[in-house]
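User: Here's a chain of 246 residues. Predict its fold as tokens.
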Amino acid sequence: MSATALSQELSKTEKLNGTNFALWKRRIGRILDEENVDYVLDKSIPTKPVDDDSLTVIREYQKWEKYNRNVRNCLLTFMEPDIEVVFEEYNNAKDMFEAIKETYGKITETYVQLLIEKYYGCEMREEDSVIDHVSKMNMIAKELAVTRNPIPEKIQVSTILNSLPSSWNSIVTTLNLSGREVSIKNLPTLLGLEVERKRKKSQPSSLMVITKPTETSQVAEKRGLLLLPLLQTPIRIFHIEISDQR
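Assistant: Prediction complete.
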């Protein structure tokens, strides 16, 4: 996984909120595996070395201390504040993770019901990003699938479209009448295209108006230029006397 891919994975990782443990655990696992520090959660906590231990043992423990601190901070970073304050008392990442798993790892009927209510009650606000909204609902659907309560794809598409604000009604109608096959995979793209199309329509078109001089004005202009030298030339008046020679 490249640095860019890791960054994208981090951006998609929803914070632990008490109802998304399974999905949160998978994403955290991918991140730690990519950084080669997942062993901090998998292996037993090493014993602190004493003075007569070998240099290798001491260095391994120092390495574990560094990675334990990194993993612990990673776990706390991806928790909602009210959950973070509960688990920050754990100094070791492994102990913290085991406590989290004990608290939120059990799938109960109440947990499933909360997920279902969260999914069908999810509504997008006017100021929200439609891409982020669809991604959020997809995460909840995946979490339900993990609990063996999958939502059929057609129902997912319909539920997401119905969760959009009323200002999106025309876009939803356009999608329904377009004849396109709408799926969970292409829904974000289709909605994004419709948003862009709507944005372009709402922008005022800027037209450059060029006024071409009329023939009359051109002629008048030429005449003015022709008369100008005449007007600027001094006029001499000659007085001629006619004598009577009779």
